[in-house]
Predict the structure of BTB/POZ domain-containing protein.
Amino acid sequence: MASMKLGSKPDAFKRQGQAWFCTTGLPSDVTVEVGDMSFHLHKFPLLSKSAFLARSIEESSDQEECVIKLNDIPGGAKSFELVARFCYGVKIELSPANVVYLRCASEHLEMTEEVAEDNLIAQSEMFLNQVVLRNWKDSLTALETCDDLLPHAEDLQIVKRCIESLASKATTDPNLFGWPIREHGIMQSPGGSVLWNGISTGARPRNFNADWWYEDVSSLSFPMYKRLISTMESRGIRPEIIAGSLTYYAKKYLPGLNRRHSIGTVPHTATLSEVEQKNLLEEIDGLLPIHKGIASTKVLLGLLRTAMILKASPTCISNLEKRIGMQLDQATLEDLLLPNFSYTMETLYNVECVHRILDHFLAMDQANGGDSPCLDDVMASPFLAPITSVAKLIDGYLAEIAPDINLKLPKFQALASAVPEYARPLDDGLYRAIDIYLKAHSWLSEAEREQLCRLLDCQKLSLEACTHAAQNERLPLRVVVQVLFFEQLQLRTSIAGCLLVSDNLEGSRPLRSSIATSGEAGGWATAVRENQVLKVGMDNMRMRLAELEKECSSMRQEIEKLGGRSSKGGGGGWASRVVPRRLGLKVRSQMCSAQEGSVSEQQRSMSAKLEKLQAKVTKQKKQLAADA
């Protein structure tokens, strides 16, 4: 820290309790009272430096004891002690920590050049401009002292000058600063090497990141910090850098941000009350630039969680929800699980808040030209990655909140249906969430189960999900039948694809006859490997087909039993009304039978082609061996 020495006389001031005495050998003829402190001094040194004190002494000349009260002097007794030493010519040291005190006190006491040459106003002003404001650390220290000296420091433009100095340095690349700005980190010579005690070491200084000043400015009071940030914005600093500094400041003074996650390595300063924390959070929300991605979604969700705990204003909470909605695709499931802090809500998690965040995301997606593409576009287009990521995130969130027995069906259904159909390439995540909800809410009626399962598109379930759903006793019978039907369709499509591959392999073999002998050997080795892979796939399909045949047979038997009971009980029975008209099980059972025959025929054809392909491979291998 820089400093400048003033005066040359030895220290002659002594303190006794709440009083200061100047031991020059002469009795004191004036007493200056500053708050609870008394200074027993002499008139001449004071009036020779200060026009204000000269007038005060003259006004008290007719009194027996000359007593001057300075209760409104900037900095109080601390400032006047230094001023008194300066008036007596005693050695004092100007530093960034006291220069603002002396500058404000000297202005109040009118210690100008007209009164005395090299007076305190000129000395402190020169040190402030030529030393303090040229250095980052010193400017920061001086600005911190201004909080105790308002509005005097404001009237003298000291606050503005310190902020301008800091803003100009923070908005400049620190790797281009050079000495003495590098006192923030490593001192360096004009040649660029690191200095140790003023001697060049030859080592190169390390590079600075754009966030090098975050920790330093976080020591400022929020009013000063706010003005500094506003000045930086006016100078064109990037929004993401501003957001990074605001995030650092929030983590330091809002303990709620660090309770659940250790976000960064920010030292926490828990000195604010809940009301002060709430006001600070609302101010930070107002300062955050409104741009997507400038602050991480984890931090924004942490701010939102803290705002709910502190009961921040609805405007603050709404703004944070909109910011999160703009980048919901970057959120994680753990951060999205916002606890419910309201006593009026029964659910464990704040589902309404997540629903509002999702609505903000969907509104932004539509505003950016989001349409309803087909399934192939969803699977192929990289531009749909955000909406598909959000759909997967919401499905995971639904699965997490589903075990909550207080979660009502309409609320669960509303959140699940809010995701557009085109956003889900597969409905496996939604099926899992519905299954968990049905398991936790076993008292739901059949109609409610039917209503919930209408959210599912059975054609968008994977084979694994279909297998699970076909054996799921919690699902309505209609859904199980649909799953079995579409599962067989998927299996037929898969088998047809395998046969197409087999035909392509068979047709490609003669084309390779014109290739050189060495190339043929490598090509047929590849064909053998492809043949083995195809065989393994067919074996798996045979096993799956056998399982499906058993399931279809079981379904036919159940349907026949239901039909038999209906015929015995009369034409108005449950089976005669529900099965044919509502579920269509008879038609579906016929479809199962027809598909069994088709699949078996496809299986036999595939086996024949496989044997034919194997024979050809063996023949070619023998031919290659003979040629060798």
